[in-house]
Amino acid sequence: MLFYKSFNYIIKRGRIFSRVITDTCNHRHQNTNKRLLSAGQEPHDRSPSNWKNNGTPEIIIGITILSLLGIDRFLQNRQDENRRLVMSKLQAVIREDERNEMERNQKNIADLEMKDMKCLFSCTVRRLPKYFDGSKCLMGVKVGDEVSVLEENVGPDGTYHLCRLERNGNTAVSTGWFPISCLEKQP
Length: 187
Prior knowledge:
Elements: H1 2-38, H2 56-116, E1 121-125, E2 146-154, E3 160-167, E4 171-179, E5 183-185
Antiparallel strand pairs: 1-2, 1-5, 2-3, 3-4
């Protein structure tokens, strides 16, 4: 019961206090209006000429700052996206270059192994096949060239020989497949 009485007392005091503050503010506001009227001014001047005193410059500055921050954030995101795109392209190019380098190394190793292979027999090129330019073909061959056969009956249906073209003695120029039908075996 004591708590209830003390609580009611606080509420009544709070109402009285809030009435006093409200009355004081209203009285000051009325006094200010009376002073403005006696000076020939309107109590609440809301004319466009009073824009400097109503917070408009602060609002404009705040909106400008927020706009600039938004634009800056947008441009930073765009730049980050461009960087990621360039990095992914560079990584793709690097991976492709590494893959090509590995293929070249493997081809060089295979060429070295073919250079070390022993010649089974020699053949003379009698004609050049039409449309003969694959990746495993013997390149740089002319009619009448002498080639060394390293392996017989290779490729699709066994219709090719693995040959090595040598010029200036034992310098291997090219190694690859050549059609059996275009070669003539030397005795």
